[in-house]
Amino acid sequence: MISAEMVKNLREKTGAGMMDCKKALSETNGDMAKAEDYLREKGIAKATKKESRIAAEGLANIYMDGNKAVILEVNSETDFVSKNDEFKAMIDTIGKTLLKSDAKTIEDANSLSCEDGTIKDLIVSMTAKIGEKLSLRRFEIVQIEDGECFGSYLHMGGKIASLVVLKGANESIAKDVAMQQAAMRPEYVFPEDVPESVVEKEKNIQKELAMNEGKPEDIAEKMVAGRIQKFFKEICLSEQAFIKDGNISVSTYVKNNGGEIVKAIRYEVGEGMEKRSDDFREEVMKQVKGN
After folding, report:
1. What residues contact residue 125 under an 8 Å CB cut-off, 6+ apart?
2. 247-277: buried (b, 16+ CB within 10 Å) or exposed (e) per residue?
């Protein structure tokens, strides 16, 4: 009988998760020492020690099959690992497994079966093997309907991944939009996607700028409307000037080719995450010292 106290003690000793500790004790008939060895052999204890470390490098990728696609980001601690063939193979396994699923959350994804265990098992095993914290940060599974098409683009070998869905048009047009999104870094797809708080903040800023230019308050307020439209052209994919023809917007380009934008997702590796501050020499020294 594996008691809660036994699981608690093993967890305190190894830092491994509760379910991992319970499984280790079950596999070793409650022998604490053997359970510790079990966790070490599986790489779980070693991987757990790295969980608090910063992993903001890595790769993003896109996988497609018929009317279904998945875009994902998998992180590592250093950029060197993103060039590792085993790391890339792990991402392929995760991506192809997700593509066959209907997972919605990271928890769903981690529990999916692949090869010799779950996605979580695979990540833990590779963390122990490579020696860096690895993690599935985010993903989104997208399905298209009849009359819709995908457009995808990977930049810098997977540092940026862009996935677009158009209704009408074709894959070539959709790829153009995906390339636009990758290059121009829009924060939103459509103006209506921009939170009201963001719009109001920008209106206040533009009003202050106009008044600082010497404009009366009533004139400044009238100027804000035009400046907000310019703001949307900077941050919304649909309103941006099309990179291949600056005289039209992206949405106009798509419309001129018989389509409309339905959805667009852009992943840039590490965006919004804290970055490691140590340099390569420090990293090498840490490896030498066994940290």
Report:
1. 42, 43, 47, 117
2. eebbbebbeeeebebbebbbbbbbeeeeebe
Residue 111's region, left for phi above 0, alpha for psi from -120 to 50, else beta, is alpha
Q: What are phi and psi of 91, to 5 degrees?
A: -65, -40
- Strand runs labelled E in the chain: 57-65, 68-76, 113-114, 117-118, 135-143, 148-155, 160-168, 241-242, 245-249, 259-268
Burial 31-62 (b: 16+ CB within 10 A, else e): eeeebbebbeebbbbbbbbbeeeebbbbbbbb
Contact 262, 253 (CB under 8 A): no
**CA quadruple 27, 29, 14, 20: dihedral positive or negative?**
positive
- Give me 117's structure tokens: 């265990």
d(CA 49, CA 51): 6
Residue 252: both structure tokens together: 């106009």
Domains of the chain, CATH where assigned: 4-49 (1.10.8.10), 57-186+265-289 (3.30.479.20), 191-255 (1.10.286.20)
Torsion of CA 148, 170, 266, 89, to 10 degrees: 90
- Show pLDDT as tens, one digit a residue, over the chain (291 residues): 889 889 888 877 765 667 778 888 999 999 988 888 787 666 665 555 555 566 679 999 999 999 999 999 999 988 888 889 999 999 999 999 999 999 999 999 999 999 878 999 999 888 888 888 899 999 999 999 999 999 999 999 999 999 999 999 999 999 999 999 999 999 999 999 999 999 999 999 998 888 888 888 888 888 888 899 999 999 999 999 999 999 999 999 999 999 999 999 999 999 988 665 554 445 445 544 544
Instruction: Report residue 57 as tokens.
Output: 């490098």
